[in-house]
Amino acid sequence: MEKEGIEESSVKLVGSRGGGGGESRWVDGSEVDSESPPWSLLDVNETTEGYGSVRRRLVKKPKRVDSFDVEAMEIDGSHGHRSKDVSIWRTLALAFQTLGVVYGDLGTSPLYVFSDVFSKVPIESDVDVLGALSLVMYTIALLPLAKYVFIVLKANDNGEGGTFALYSLICRYAKVNLLPNRQLADEQISSFRLKLPTPELERALRIKETLEQKSFLKTLILLLVLMGTSMIIGDGILTPAISVMSAVSGLQVKIPGFGTNALVIVSIIILIGLFSIQQFGTTKVGFTFAPALALWFFSLGSIGIYNLFKHDISVLRAFNPAYIYFFFKKNTRKAWSALGGCILCITGAEAMFADLGHFSVPAIQIAFTCVVFPCLLFAYMGQAAYLMKHPDSAERIFYDSIPDSIFWPVFVIATIAAVIASQAMISASFSCIKQSMALGCFPRMKIVHTSRKLMGQIYIPVLNWFLMIMCVLVVATFRSTTDIANAYGIAEVGVMMVSTTLVTLVMLLIWQTNLFLALCFPLIFGTTELIYMSAVLSKIKEGGWLPLVFATCLLCVMYIWNYGSVLKYQSEVREKISMVLMLDLGSTLGTVRVPGIGLLYNELVQGIPSVFGQFLLDLPAIHSTIVFVCIKYVPVPVVPQEERFLFRRVCPKDYHMFRCVARYGYKDVRKEDHHAFEQLLVESLEKFLRREAQDLALEINFNEMEFDSISVRSRDSGVPGGDETGELGIPLMHDQRFEETGTYTSEEIVSTMPSSVLSADEDPSLEYELSALREAMDSGFTYLLGHGDVRAKKNSWFLKKLVINYFYAFLRRNCRGGAGTMRVPHMNVLQVGMTYMV
């Protein structure tokens, strides 16, 4: 995007944190490379009218003055990475919670896996049972254990998982985001954590350049991410349906006359109850469900060991993978069809990654390796041992293999576990939609944060009730777990294939893994998933069409929203007000300036938005102080509090206009306290003005020294030179702390300033501007919002007109917007209408 150094006469007070360069800084309208020494003399061409001469000036690089924390909740982990010194007890507590939230779906798979497999392959010999058992065991070991636990979980984005977390990682290292609002200063956010060069850097740079230059590759990656997200939400619909129906079907075995209608009604009642309790939050749900799931896994393992020793311990031969070959050799096409049932043993595996934001990597790894994996192996081996003696029980193997004396207790636990299984994909759906909204790929909806300790635990009311309605429709329509299972397999394998593709790209671009190892990942896991996909696609006519139709519809919604948002942003960039016009209007802006502070919310990170001109035309007067506030989401989970905001001055001093770019990660929380916002805004502006005056006084002082032939370096022995990254200024958020302690950390290297600089508050122009700011604050704040209508140009293609004028317009009218999105008080809002022709 074009750089507008001449448009904004400002000091953008940002500083590096050591290491990577590439940051730029604004000094009186000129952009200066941050890789220059902390002190340097530059020739700056004055572009403002009346300043045609070239003058020498001293440029310094103060630390970033990220001025104020506006709406961030004071909750653990909200302003930085999770603490690395998490106690083992905390990790174990989280691991216990994962049983109730993450592993419910995976844990209930023994209810229906062998029933579905042997509905396609009748049991005729031991090879059928041993081959199916070997397939199940190695599928669990290969995909959930080897792929997710040991590899994919490590591809998290500062503790956040899911397809959008992978996308945000890729967006940080390559500019593949279609919304062109990235700034060089964003790369200085500590949570970016860009890797240092490695021997594989050249290959990674080639991949980066290719991705950035080819627009169709950017679109392809976005579509891939959106498809994966759509499949996860599809899982959120199918998981509750199949899990609950499979558990309740046990009543058909023990209660005569309990038919299909009764099964459907009971399942729907349970599903409605499940979605009704989501509003209480993941923590409460997790601690409520975790004991039940722990008991369920204990029951699976115990019953499996009991059946293993009682019926046929020789099924341990299935550890020999040769039985997989024998199974396919004997059954050929039927065995390939049975893969569609075998894949059900890992349903919910994607929840381990998608739900990562609710927990932590060690917690999920400990729970799977120590509890889930061994219990599942024992459960499947026990069922296989029972089938060796009772091959006719394949259709209802789970309930038939339970000893009669404990049938009802296990049935109750199984039903509870099936209900809980739905929680994994419901939580994952919430996380994915939150991330997609933050990255501009989904219409805005209300998000409720249910925990003050863990940011990732959220509840989205609209999505929750939508999932409930869809689940009820699926159960009422299909009325059978067999058809739902066919649909389930396609959604699950689709999500895994998307993850494999994105993680491979992360390995090559970000991890810079050895090429051979990086290619082994898709070769092993991608090939396995393609084989499973070929099997489940054969069931499209038998229910497999459902996730494809749903994913396609959701994909269209997400892509249309992203497409329209990008076009709207590009239109705003083209139509922004030029600085020449602003200078022609003068400091009065062609109208009357009345006391007060106007906060104009817009999406531009540079330039003056066209909606401001509409305000000047429609309002009889404008506020004496104007702040352009840009709420911007960057591709990181969390932006630390002290790095969240950037200030800069817009136009000359007597205009009293400023810009604030508020940067949020896709996990950041914003609370609706506009009073704190306003107070912090004024305090931060005052500090910004003082620092600006201090900078200018320091610059003038050293200019005088230079003209007196005095060496700058001899006057400033405390400032590092050469390639060092010492900093002059102190972040405003820490000013008071430093004044109280009188000491500085090693990161804040402060030079000895002349007394003329330290007395910058005595500057009459500064005191006048501060008094004007206080007067404006006393008069109150007004929130200026533009209500934009997006229309396609008349010469656009018919398809573009259809998408923008109808579909995108419908989404904009029905999504959450305006004051609700910006978290501003309705009583202090002024809105004007704008039409953007795209």
TrEMBL record:
InterPro entries: K+_transporter, K_trans_C, K_trans_N. Residues 94-580 form the K+ potassium transporter integral membrane domain. NCBIfam families: kup (TIGR00794). Potassium transporter. Residues 595-836 form the K+ potassium transporter C-terminal domain. PANTHER family: OSMOTIC STRESS POTASSIUM TRANSPORTER, POTASSIUM TRANSPORTER 12-RELATED. Keywords: Ion transport, Membrane, Potassium, Potassium transport, Transmembrane, Transmembrane helix, Transport. It is a multi-pass membrane protein. Residues 1-39 are annotated as: Disordered. Residues 1-10 have a biased composition (Basic and acidic residues). Belongs to the HAK/KUP transporter (TC 2.A.72.3) family. Its main location: membrane. GO terms for molecular function: potassium ion transmembrane transporter activity. It is found in: Cell membrane; Membrane. This is Potassium transporter. The chain crosses the membrane at residues 92-114, 129-150, 216-238, 258-277, 289-309, 335-354, 366-386, 406-433, 454-476, 488-509, 516-537, 543-561. Pfam families: K_trans, K_trans_C. One of its GO terms (cellular component) is plasma membrane.
